[in-house]
């Protein structure tokens, strides 16, 4: 029973209105935290911010792995694998390009590239 | 045990995602933010792989390999192409959400008790948001990349907005029908998918290049929200949290972009900005004063404070390195040089900062519009490079102007203004710029890279002679 919710596709047993309501609370609080944190992000860094959140929202990778990885009909596995490849692309390119851009921001006095 | 390993990994990952964004508040800690994000994502993936139901390791390895093969080259794009890359990335995010939704829907057909009203509702939301983000972002990427068969100019036709909204309403109605009878009416599901795909395309068609920063931010928000909906479908808190962070980030950036253009979301999405171009053309003929690079170099040399206003035209002309050389020549003479950055300069939020940072301009010289404007009256020379609408004083007083009310950089309040421009053609929004005809403005005609190069040559060669 404890593994039930983790398998993500084991059925409706865990997804009653109570679970849905608690997710709504999580969503609400996470949105407030997000708004609070993102308003403080330096305006200099809005482009890197967006590529960083690209990578973060590729958290869909978690769902894709489960769908591609579990024993399902081949069509479903294929859908999951495409979703997984798309999410991994976002993760890899998102983090790499964010870091690449951030390296370019030179502190005052530290003007030349090392 | 496995339960707590997985939940623990997700819990720590959630905390690290928040910290990752938090550290972006300062360029000095920002790279730590990327590190936190990488650790969080690794934990999330590792935790998920512990799931005992996972058997198709070959498929997973293959998909991950494809992700690396595509992702690594995508991170090498030139910085001018970052907006397109971002749009493509939103498209992938939307696609992943949509496909996961399709997979869940067909799996649940075999276990109809899974279709609780809430979950079906979330599933429909996930699929609509995911697929409209997918095609909408691809369209946006195509417009930004200037792909030939996607028109750059806004395309409008009669009853466009009504048709688009109607389409979306039909999709939503089908969604509610599915919530009611998910198995009997399963045939409606592909209809929703097709409508969402079509809506994404139709939504972007009437939007012009000048509005792309807002549109990209909005699509960023949608990609996040589709991840949230997925979290509701799968009862997964980590998805909800990470998606909410992304969604709120996109929302804030969209609001900043809209404010910087004095427009509303509805106006950006349904206003078809390009429409105003036709009526603006018939102004009286006025003459602008010209200046030569020699003269301009002398003017710059005598200044003690210079503010450079860069626009996307600077990036199009690939003039960043020349601008950097100009910055060096001027600072060598103890002239204070600052860059005035308008929030919508460039093709996405913050784009201009990244382009200048790449040219090794220290970031404390990149000043936001609101901070630089009070300094403008004390500024000796403003040098406008490839910017247009963001310095047009008409935004302040001309109620008939389409950009009326948009906050601008007060280039006209400086003691003198030099503007580099290819020709007198009006800019992206097709509006004539009063600044160019002002008493204190002198025009330098030509390609931004060549003109700034000439200025640098004059300053480097002629120093001490004048």
Protein described:
The complex is a heterodimer of chains A (114) and B (466). Chain A contains four helices and no strands. Residues 1-13 of chain A have low confidence and may be disordered. Chain A has helices at 17-39, 46-57, 61-69, 74-104. With 114 residues, chain A is mostly helical. Chain A starts with 16 loop residues before the first helix and ends in a 10-residue tail after the last helix. Chain B is α/β, with parallel strands linked by helices and 466 residues long. In chain B, 58% of the residues lie in helices and 7% in strands. In chain B, β4, α17 and β5 (416-421) form a beta-alpha-beta unit. In chain B, 55% of the residues are buried.
Notable characteristics:
heterodimer, A: 114 residues, mainly alpha, 4 helices, B: 466 residues, alpha/beta, six-stranded parallel β-sheet
Query: Residue ranges of chain B: pLDDT <50 for 5 or more in a row?
Result: 273-282
What spatial order of strands do you see in the largest sheet of chain B? 3-2-1-4-5-6
Structural class of chain A: mainly alpha
Radius of gyration of chain B: 26 Å
| Main β-sheet description of chain A | none
Mean pLDDT of chain B: 89
Instruction: Quote the distance from N terminus to C terminus of chain A.
Output: 56 Å
Give the biggest sheet of chain B: 6 strands, parallel
Q: How helical, in percent, are the residues of chain A?
A: 55-70%
Coarse structural class of chain B: alpha/beta
Rough outline of chain A: flat
Give the strand content of chain B.
5-15%
Q: Considering DSSP H and I runs of 4 or more, what fraction of the residues of chain B is helical?
A: 55-70%
Q: Count of helical segments of chain B?
A: 18
Number of strands of chain A: 0
Oligomer: heterodimer
Uncertain parts of chain A = 1-13
CA-atom Rg of chain A in angstroms: 19 Å
């Amino acid at each position: 029973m404890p593994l039930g919710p983790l398998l993500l596709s084991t059925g409706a047993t865990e997804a009653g209105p109570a679970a849905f309501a608690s997710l709504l609370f999580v969503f609400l609080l996470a949105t407030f935290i997000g708004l609070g944190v993102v308003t403080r992000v330096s305006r200099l860094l809005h482009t890197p911010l967006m590529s960083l959140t690209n990578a973060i929202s590729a958290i869909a990778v978690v769902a894709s792995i489960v769908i591609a990885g579990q024993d399902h009909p081949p069509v479903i596995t294929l859908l999951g694998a495409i979703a997984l490849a798309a999410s991994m692309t976002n993760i890899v390119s998102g983090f790499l390009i964010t870091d690449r851009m951030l390296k370019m921001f030179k502190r005052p006095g530290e003007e030349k590239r090392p | 045990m496995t339960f707590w390993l997985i939940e623990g990994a997700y819990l720590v990952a959630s905390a690290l995602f928040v910290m990752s964004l938090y550290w972006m508040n300062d360029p000095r800690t920002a790279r730590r933010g990327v590190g936190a994000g990488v650790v969080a994502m690794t934990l999330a993936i590792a935790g998920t792989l512990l799931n005992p139901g996972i058997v198709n390791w070959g498929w997973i390895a293959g998909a991950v390999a494809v992700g690396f093969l595509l992702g690594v080259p995508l991170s090498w794009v030139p910085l001018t192409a970052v907006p397109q890359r971002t749009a493509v990335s939103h498209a992938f995010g939307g696609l992943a959400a949509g496909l996961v939704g399709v997979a869940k829907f067909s799996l649940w057909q075999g276990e109809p008790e899974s279709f609780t009203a809430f979950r079906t509702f979330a599933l429909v939301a996930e699929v609509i948001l995911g697929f409209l983000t997918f095609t909408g972002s691809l369209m946006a990427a195509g417009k930004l990349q200037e792909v030939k068969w996607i028109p750059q100019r806004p395309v409008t036709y009669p009853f466009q907005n009504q048709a688009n909204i109607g389409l979306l309403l039909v999709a939503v109605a089908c969604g509610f029908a599915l919530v009611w009878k998910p198995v009997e009416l399963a045939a409606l599901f592909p209809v929703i998918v097709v409508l969402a795909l079509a809506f994404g395309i139709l939504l972007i068609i009437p939007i012009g290049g000048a509005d792309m920063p807002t549109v990209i931010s909005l699509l960023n928000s949608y990609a996040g929200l589709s991840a949230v909906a997925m979290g509701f479908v799968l009862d997964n808190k980590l998805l909800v949290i990470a998606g909410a962070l992304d969604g709120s980030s996109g929302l804030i950036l969209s609001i900043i972009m809209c404010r910087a253009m004095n427009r509303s979301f509805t106006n950006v999405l349904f206003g078809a900005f390009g429409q105003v171009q036709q009526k603006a053309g018939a102004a009286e003929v006025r003459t602008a004063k010209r200046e030569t690079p020699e003269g301009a170099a002398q003017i710059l040399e005598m200044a003690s404070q210079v503010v450079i206003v860069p626009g996307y035209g600077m990036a199009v002309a690939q003039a960043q390195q020349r601008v950097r050389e100009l910055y060096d020549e001027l600072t060598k003479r103890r002239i204070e040089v600052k860059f005035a950055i308008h929030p919508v300069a460039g093709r996405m939020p913050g784009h201009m900062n990244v382009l200048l940072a790449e040219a090794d301009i220290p970031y404390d010289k990149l000043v936001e519009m609101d901070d630089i404007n009070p300094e403008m009256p004390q500024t000796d020379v403003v040098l406008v490079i490839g910017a247009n609408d963001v310095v047009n004083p008409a935004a302040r007083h001309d109620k008939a102007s389409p950009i009326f009310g948009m906050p601008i950089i007060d280039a006209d309040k400086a003691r003198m203004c030099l503007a580099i421009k290819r020709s007198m053609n009006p800019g992206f929004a097709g509006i004539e710029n009063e600044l160019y005809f002002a008493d204190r403005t002198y025009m330098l005609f030509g390609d931004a890279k060549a003109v700034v190069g000439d200025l640098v040559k004059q300053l480097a060669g002629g120093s001490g002679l004048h």
